[in-house]
Amino acid sequence: MHSLSTTYIALGANLENPVAQLTTALEEIAQLPNTSIIQCSKFYRTKPIGPKQPDIINAVIALQTALSPYELLHALQAIELKHGRTRTVRFGARTLDLDVLLYEDWVNDDSALIVPHPRMHERNFVLIPLYEIAPDLILPQGAIADLIARNDPEDYVIPLDL
User: So what family is this one in (predicted)?
Assistant: First the structure.
């Protein structure tokens, strides 16, 4: 068994009861072998990127896992498929989106998996929930609070009262 690694995962959904999609996905992620959720942000309502579509519900979780980065990616993709995820329109509406943001200090750039996530520093819908659970984390582009301040304030990220 591998030693446990800390990884951060972004969750998003805007179709078919997004809050229920994220809640169920969290339960399914918690059932992955040798994996536990150690922190979960609030859920946030955010402005979508791309074509006109409903607002997205986003969250970020911290995991401890013995799965390798690719094992984790494949497990997350299987959960997306179980939720009816299709990839027909770039940045289109989705039942569930699970993205590996960080995996320890591992760096990778291939067609299957780019870590750290290449655009997370530009996206407050990722940075604000990430800051909530890991305020001291420093990304390659800088401190999370500084990155949030640099991004477009029109890209609202509103916590949900659940």
Answer: Belongs to the HPPK family.
